[in-house]
Amino acid sequence: KHTGNREGGAITAALFLKEFVGDARWMHLDIAGPAFLDRPHGVSPKGGSGFGVMTAIRFLESLAEPEPEAEETEEA
């Protein structure tokens, strides 16, 4: 459960994490769910909906996939 009010939580978390990452390039994504589900719904499990998590996962997976090699066509 989040503590405090709704404003400023993401920056507080980012500033906290900054203390531990050193010189590494990093990014903080505040993906706390805007909804809390009492039961599973569609692809979302019970609990925090984690808005945007599935989209972020698909995007990161696409970055990890090798580029398809262009097929060379032979001219007859």
Feature tags:
single chain, 76 residues, mainly alpha, two-stranded antiparallel sheet, 2 strands, 33% helix, flat
- The overall pLDDT average reads 77
Distance from first to last alpha carbon: 67 Å
Percent of residues in helical segments?
25-40%
Please give the largest β-sheet: 2 strands, antiparallel
With strands numbered from the N-terminus, the spatial order across the biggest sheet is 1-2
Q: Strand portion, in percent? A: 5-15%
Q: What structural category do the secondary elements indicate?
A: mainly alpha
Poorly predicted tracts of residues: none
Radius of gyration: 20 Å
Instruction: Provide a count of the helices.
Output: 2
User: How many β-strand stretches?
Assistant: 2
- Overall spatial form: flat
What is the helix/strand order?
A: HEEH
Structure explained in plain terms:
The chain is mainly α and 76 residues long. It has a domain at 31-65. 33% of the residues lie in helices and 5% in strands. The protein contains 2 helices and 2 strands, in the order H-E-E-H. Strands 1-2 form a two-stranded antiparallel sheet. The mean pLDDT is 77.
Give me the secondary-structure topology.
Elements: H1 9-21, E1 36-37, E2 47-48, H2 53-64
Antiparallel strand pairs: 1-2
Write a compact overview of the structure shown.
Helix content is 33%, strand content 5%.
